[in-house]
């Protein structure tokens, strides 16, 4: 269980990383924290020719704050959120999600950009950030583009990255004071990957009411207008409609009755945590 | 009780190095010129090998069965009538019978390089249908693993005692019960370093094993080398639990390689090999019927049990031990008049099985205790009352049960009553009536077991497997400065023998435990032993050390009396001294005379001196019987199927406890593993025989957040047959938790249309399936047996 041979580069600027990443004569993998990739290397499930370690690139560690959002560099760690080193514009929502990711050792090294690029459906950031309405900022040879999380993640371990493109940052919207967020994860043991995730954000001041079913066999299932899960009542959401939630999952292709049951329950409990149900 | 003798909760001598990371394990060895081995392993479960293609770059670095001329396959034969023999080659020859089976051995400067070489070897395989389900494997027309057998059954056994007398019982409950295949998970995996010592003319094999002498015997048979040409060294070993009680094909293959290559070679098992290739345990199926009277009194138990033994009979315990043990121990701690048990040990296209802590007891306890709860529900009685009705009573002790097991001592009903008190059964029943604010349902479960330990010649001679334990020997040697060196042939890898045997020495000779050193894990330095298994170490090695020390005391007394100018009848040995009527000598003073001033000895001194090898067996070698009652309070979340253990009580009687702290540690560790069996651990296979858990995120183990703070209640009924009255207790903790927790879950779910869990582990999905099945108008058998 030792990795196959690979070359290793640790560029110190983004342009250098992109130049290495766009080489089409080599299979290139970006190393951003290694908490998923390194085990995959050891199991030889990933056998890149070249590993580009982006953790020494200052731009990727930056956090920029504006009136309506913060932009967090791809190499900011889960622990940076957990410990409050990233300014919290989400009323405690994202530090709470971060606190539940795997184990502390993983959170110390694992990064937000790495997690999103890896796109494990059972991971926390894809669901949590999709519910928040975050975008991914991608930088490639052709420049920069901004994509919503649910568009960026296209499937299980699949994302839409153009050749050479890497995750540069994540844009997290600033929630209003009255926003309510709930997150519930069903997993066999604390720290293990989730079997079902429910995440919900109700931010009436910004006219946002989003719900996410995560840890599915596909990309996170986003309900952009979650009022439909509460009898269509956005103003005073009081009753979570489990049938409507199950219908969303069935329509998305989920067939196993117990998978549907625990995903509905996870979202219902997330709504409970957001005081919505 | 002194602070270091029998009964003292002395801190462990071995912890200083182990907790500081200064232990020396096989993987810590650094021998000059050592090269690493990686194996080409079978990617499929069942196939004929058409060809093994080694590229030019791998020439000289890759070895296959064709190279291992003269190496014999591993044969673990049982003498039980009808046992069919398997031959497990060191490297697969002709045919592959499980995923992960060794096909080629690759050597390189590093493990990564060796894995590159292994990846370059191409296998041309003719894949065949696999047997992955033991029940299907028993049926006619199943693919055959060992063609000459004509079927896939290693061994079929049948025990019957008047079962027909039970058939008219008013209560008859039948259940199909299934326990998952598991993989034992010591922190350290297996590992082997081998080299040829040209000075000693010996093959030196360092290996992480529980039984160095048995490995030497096995290597001698497979490699065709005299025992004297082989030395097996077992350094620090990071846990065994049964996983290291096997002769490995890797040990044979590396032994052969070291004879050829002129440099040390090393193989360290990685996690994927550990999980998918080496050895599993615990996969049982029971079809069990209990016959009872309305008052809960058992009239009889009728059972058909099948054990998935994997592809080969593992050396030395064989493929038969587990299933044959099922038949002999299924009656548990209960007294009933009629019994029948038919067992099948089935060969499947999976890696072999090994006896895991508790061996078959964890499975039979699960089957019997679940069916007892079903009887209680049928009779409308408290499950604990049904148990009290049927447990062997203290006044019956010693008691020969229906399968001729000899229960040496104890008060089984008292253990259960203490568990009922500690968990507070009436309070739980009251709380259940009120319901839980969070919508969960709580339930209470009990299980009672007895644990045969340190069973010896009379028991094992009957199995006829490659090893039968006899007298356990220990050598005690007083050093010239009055310390004591112990040499034992079994091995301590978590059992705390460096501490507890020093306590035995202290008890008898009064030597300070810090001056007692334990030599173990080296066939060149220690007496022959079958090793550490079956909770035998404290009974057997403790007994041998005790006898040796008593003889040391006699010899020291003789020398001391002479030096003190008194009659030997007038001296006593205690506190590390020979004490006469008006003076005393320390053991160090006596040792100095024996070793360094022999001119001061009497003319007719005993020439054997201050070194004694003693051999020990208990007065009866049919085994000590420790026992216990476990009780659990659980909460079940019926929406998502989660089970939380709210409270857990262990009442345990291990006879005289040499070190209660160490015993508590054994119980904690055992219960943790039992919780793994109950709720988490499962090695699933797909229909082609592929193991589906190859990482520890697929194969879940309980951790700190899953194991509650246990409450342990001790009882101490000394064994009438052993030194100090000790009993083996190494396995008990792991026996009862699956049954206890399953009964608690079923108690919690009972009101939900009698949902019943009959399969371990109790995963959330299985809980949801059981609830759904109980609610469904027409119960269907399309249950989720092999789905998580």
Work out the strand percent of chain A.
15-25%
Sheet with the most strands: spatial strand order of chain A:
4-5-10-6-7
Just give the CATH class of the largest domain in chain B: Alpha Beta
The shape of chain A, in one word, is: globular
Secondary-structure-based class of chain A equals: alpha+beta
What oligomerization state is this entry in? heterodimer
Helicity range of chain B? 25-40%
- The first-level CATH class name of the largest domain in chain A: Alpha Beta
Mean pLDDT of chain B: 95
CATH topology type of the largest domain in chain B: Aldehyde Oxidoreductase, domain 4
Number of helices of chain B: 19
Count of discrete domains of chain B: 3
Could you report the average pLDDT of chain A, rounded to the nearest whole number? 95
Strand tally of chain A, please?
14
């Amino acid at each position: 269980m030792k990795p196959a041979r690979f070359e290793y580069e640790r560029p110190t600027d983004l342009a250098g990383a992109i130049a290495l990443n766009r080489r089409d004569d080599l299979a290139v993998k970006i190393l951003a924290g290694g908490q998923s990739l390194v085990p995959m290397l050891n199991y030889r499930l990933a056998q890149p020719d070249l590993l580009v370690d982006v953790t020494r690139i200052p731009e990727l560690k930056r956090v920029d704050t504006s009136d309506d959002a913060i932009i967090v560099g791809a190499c900011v760690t889960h622990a940076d959120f957990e410990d409050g080193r990233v300014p919290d514009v989400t009323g405690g929502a994202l530090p709470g999600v971060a606190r539940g990711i795997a184990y502390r050792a993983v959170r110390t090294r694992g990064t937000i950009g790495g997690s999103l690029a890896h796109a494990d459906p059972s991971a926390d950031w894809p669901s949590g950030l999709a519910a928040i309405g975050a975008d991914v900022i991608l930088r490639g040879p052709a420049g920069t583009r901004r994509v919503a999380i649910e568009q960026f993640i296209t499937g299980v371990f699949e994302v839409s990255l153009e050749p050479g493109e890497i995750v540069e940052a994540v844009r997290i919207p600033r929630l209003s004071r009255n926003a309510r967020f709930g997150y519930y994860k069903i997993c066999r043991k604390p720290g293990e990957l989730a079997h079902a995730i429910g995440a919900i954000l109700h931010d009436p001041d910004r006219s946002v009411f989003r719900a996410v079913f995560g840890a599915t066999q596909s990309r996170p299932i986003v309900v952009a207008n979650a009022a439909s899960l509460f009898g269509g009542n956005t103003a005073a959401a009081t009753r979570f409609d489990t049938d409507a939630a199950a219908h969303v999952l069935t329509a998305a292709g989920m067939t196993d009755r117990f998978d549907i049951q625990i995903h509905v329950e996870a979202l219902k409990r997330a709504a409970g945590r957001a005081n919505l149900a | 009780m002194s602070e270091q003798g029998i009964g003292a909760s002395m801190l462990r001598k071995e912890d200083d190095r182990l907790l500081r990371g200064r232990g020396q394990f096989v993987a810590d060895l650094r021998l000059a010129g050592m090269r690493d081995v990686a194996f080409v392993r079978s990617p499929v479960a069942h196939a004929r090998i058409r060809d093994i293609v080694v590229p030019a770059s791998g020439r000289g670095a890759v070895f296959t069965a064709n190279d291992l001329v003269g190496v014999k396959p591993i044969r673990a034969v049982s003498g039980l009538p009808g046992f069919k023999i398997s031959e497990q080659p060191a490297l697969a020859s002709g045919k592959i019978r499980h995923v992960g089976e060794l096909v080629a051995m690759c050597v390189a400067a590093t493990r990564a390089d060796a894995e590159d070489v292994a990846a370059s070897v191409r296998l041309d395989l003719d894949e065949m249908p696999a047997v992955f389900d033991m029940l299907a494997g028993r049926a006619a027309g199943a693919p055959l693993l060992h063609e000459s057998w004509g079927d896939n059954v290693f061994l079929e056994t049948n025990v019957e005692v008047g079962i027909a007398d039970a058939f008219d019982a008013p209560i008859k409950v039948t259940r199909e019960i299934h326990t998952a295949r598991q993989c034992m998970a010591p922190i350290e995996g297996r590992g082997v370093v081998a080299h040829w010592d040209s000075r000693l003319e010996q093959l030196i094999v360092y290996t992480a094993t529980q039984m160095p002498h048995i490995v030497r015997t096995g290597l001698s048979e497979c490699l065709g080398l005299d025992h004297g040409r082989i030395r097996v060294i077992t350094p620090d070993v990071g846990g065994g639990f049964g996983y290291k009680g096997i002769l490995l094909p890797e040990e044979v293959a590396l032994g052969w390689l070291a004879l050829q290559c002129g440099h040390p070679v090393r193989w360290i098992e990685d996690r994927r090999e550990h999980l998918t290739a080496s050895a599993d345990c615990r996969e049982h199926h029971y079809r069990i019927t209990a016959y009872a009277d309305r008052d809960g009194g058992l009239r009889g138990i009728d059972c058909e049990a099948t054990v998935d033994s994997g592809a080969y009979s593992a050396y030395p315990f064989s493929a038969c031990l587990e299933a044959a043990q099922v038949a002999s121990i299924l009656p548990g701690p209960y007294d009933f008049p009629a019994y029948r048990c038919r067992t099948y040990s089935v060969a499947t296209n999976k890696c072999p099985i090994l006896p895991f802590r508790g061996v078959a007891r964890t499975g039979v306890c699960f089957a019997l205790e679940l069916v007892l709860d079903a009887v209680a529900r049928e009779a409308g009685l408290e499950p604990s009352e049904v148990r009290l009705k049927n447990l062997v009573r203290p006044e019956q002790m010693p008691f020969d049960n229906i399968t001729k097991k000899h229960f040496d001592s104890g008060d089984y009903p008292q253990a259960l009553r203490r568990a009922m008190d500690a968990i507070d059964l009436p309070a739980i029943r009251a709380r259940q009536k009120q319901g839980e604010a969070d919508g969960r349902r709580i339930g209470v479960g009990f299980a009672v077991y007895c644990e045969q330990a340190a069973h010896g010649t009379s028991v094992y001679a009957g199995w006829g497997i490659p090893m039968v334990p006899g007298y356990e020997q220990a050598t005690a040697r007083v050093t010239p400065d009055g310390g004591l060196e112990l040499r034992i042939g079994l091995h301590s890898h978590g059992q705390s023998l460096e501490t507890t045997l020093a306590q035995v020495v202290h008890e008898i000779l009064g030597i300070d435990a810090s001056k007692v050193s334990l030599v173990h894990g080296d066939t060149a330095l220690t007496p022959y032993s079958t090793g550490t298994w079956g909770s035998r170490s404290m009974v057997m090695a403790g007994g041998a050390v005790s006898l040796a020390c008593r003889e040391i005391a006699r010899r020291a007394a003789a020398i001391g009396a002479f030096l003190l100018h008194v009659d030997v009848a007038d001296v006593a040995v205690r506190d590390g001294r020979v004490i006469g009527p008006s003076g005393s000598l320390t053991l160090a003073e006596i040792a100095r005379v024996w070793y360094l001033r022999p001119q001061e000895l009497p003319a007719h001194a005993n020439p054997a001196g201050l070194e004694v090898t003693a051999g020990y067996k208990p007065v009866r070698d049919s085994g000590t019987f420790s026992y216990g009652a476990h009780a659990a309070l659980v909460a079940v979340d019926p929406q998502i199927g989660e089970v939380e253990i709210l409270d857990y009580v262990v009442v345990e009687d291990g006879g005289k406890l040499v070190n209660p702290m160490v015993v508590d540690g054994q119980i904690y560790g055992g219960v943790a593993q039992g919780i793994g069996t109950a709720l988490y651990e499962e090695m699933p296979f797909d229909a082609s025989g592929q193991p589906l858990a190859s990482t520890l995120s697929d194969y879940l183990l309980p951790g700190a957040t899953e194991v509650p703070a246990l409450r342990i209640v001790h009882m101490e009924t000394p064994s009438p047959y052993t030194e100090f009255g000790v009993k083996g207790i190494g396995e008990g903790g792991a026996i009862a938790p699956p049954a206890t927790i399953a009964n608690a879950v079923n108690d919690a779910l009972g009101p939900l249309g009698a949902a019943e869990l009959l399969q371990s582990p109790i995963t959330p999905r299985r809980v949801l399936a059981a609830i759904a099945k109980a609610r469904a108008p027409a119960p269907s058998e399309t249950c989720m047996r092999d789905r998580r």
